Amino acid sequence: MSFWCDKRSAIAFGLALAVMLWSAVGCAASGDCPKFLAGHKVGTVQSAVIKGASGLAASRKNPGVLWIHNDYGPACVYAMTPEGKHLGVYNFAGAKNLNWEDIAIGPGPEPNVDYIYAGDIGDNNAKRKDVTIYRIIEPNVDVNQTSVNVTITNVETIVLVYPDGPRDAETLIVDPLTKDIYIISKEGTSKVYRAAYPQATTGKTTLEEVAKLHWGMATAGDISPDGREIIVRGYFGASLWVRPKDGPMWKAFENSECSIPIILEQQGEAICFDANGAGYYTTSEHKHQPIYYFPRDTKLKNN
Q: What is the pTM of this model?
């Protein structure tokens, strides 16, 4: 997101509230919580074009590839390595970037195919009548390739409407088990909305509110490749929920959350599990930001 002058007071209040709420919910974490080690820097975003990184996703079909995007400007995603090496620009033909705030990897219409979902869901002033998710089949990328500039022509558009009016959001998650799309709002108490699969690519679909977080100002999220764990971050903290066995993803938010480590960043709005769920990455808006990795503590039996 961009920090508009007329919203600074509200944002400052929201950040302060989020800090207080994280302090409270951190104590709720049980001994069953997965444990992650402190983060360490693994790279720096090398492309100077990436100035407003608001989403991050780890490819599962392209080993060693991360997808990243800006929250304004061209409707495209960028491929890079965890070290930050720029691999290419992948443009979405016919799409617009009003305010892309998150990205997700997940299943879609074709079986055994990975898709990229780009969430044009930002709405700083809560005025948009609808929001848009763009979906493409994930292209092939090689970590050894020279930088490319590619246009993807087969872009699907999913238009969504909130049941309770416009709102800002920066978190997009696609359930790998059900193909449902989830959006988590960015407000005092973040709400969880679902668009059940199959989502229409013509007309508009009304989202369903299914849960609430115990805190607000959510800026990014992801789900593990096996669909078992969900992570959501804000500017000053992050939480993890474990999905109940055989339950829908949103039921996880009814359980106690687990506090997970985060590094204070300049404007942290991106988080994603790695391709194997063995840890997670974070980065921030602004130029040449560090990329951090938080590995799972495999020495503990509850992992």
A: 0.91
Tally of structural domains, the chain? 1
Sheet bearing 169-174, strands edge to edge: 169-174, 181-185, 191-195, 208-212
Stretch among 20-24, 41-45, 99-103, 134-138 having the lowest mean pLDDT: 20-24
CA-to-CA dists, residue 203 to 73, 107, 255, 277, angstroms: 25, 21, 35, 35
CB atoms within 10 A of CB 177: 15
**Domain, as residue range, for 164:** 5-295
Per-residue pLDDT tens digits for 14-48: 454 444 444 444 444 456 899 999 999 999 999 99
Q: Beta strands 204-206 and 208-212: pairing type?
A: unpaired
Within a domain: 149: yes
The neighbouring-strand residues paired with 158 are 133
